[in-house]
Amino acid sequence: xxxxxxxxxxxxxxxxxxxxxxxxxxxxxxxxxxxxxxxxxxxxxxxxxxxxxxxxxxxxxxxxxxxxxxxxxxxxxxxxxxxxxxxxxxxxxxxxxxxxxxxxxxxxxxxxxxxxxxxxxxxxxxxxxxxxxxxxxxxxxxxxxxxxxxxxxxxxxxxxxxxxxxxxxxxxxxxxxxxxxxxxxxxxxxxxxxxx
Length: 196
Prior knowledge:
CATH topology of the domain at 6-57 and 115-193: Rossmann fold
Largest sheet: 5 strands, parallel
Number of helices: 6
Order of helices and strands: HEHEHEEEEHHHE
Mean pLDDT: 92
Strand order of the largest sheet: 2-5-1-6-7
Strand content: 15-25%
CATH architecture of the domain at 6-57 and 115-193: 3-Layer(aba) Sandwich
CATH class of the domain at 6-57 and 115-193: Alpha Beta
Oligomer: single chain
Number of strands: 7
Radius of gyration: 16 Å
Distance between the termini: 21 Å
CATH superfamily of the domain at 6-57 and 115-193: P-loop containing nucleotide triphosphate hydrolases
Low-confidence stretches: none
Helix content: 25-40%
């Protein structure tokens, strides 16, 4: 897959919105932790006139099994995320889901269904999710560089030493493993080089 630009991504999404009938198109944005997924999703949402809370992040779907010792595929509640995507693909008028954050906080999001559903998060392109997305985007950035950027960000957000150390012991190694196992660049429809 050759690399493209943000303007091309925006044009492709607008075309999807204009040509998809009877349901909401779904765009998946993935990359390693710290690669800029949330930033790209927020920019895309703003340019499409979506509300910030109409972007769905896998960070809202931590499984009850998540934690430092959980396996790479045990962090996300994949069935719950799939139900949200299925709702968009089957014509639901509401974007409604229960969330669970890393720290265990829970709640419910309930918003009008946007004209396009943007989903962003790590490990989003895999065997389970191949049929979920009308357009899949991979943000190209080495896991080590992305992890270093994420650690700097999280330090500014107030993460403690144990949380920051997880980047070296868990998140970055899992990023390498994910890229080798799932080949997300090859699964993606579009590849954008990370900014910064």
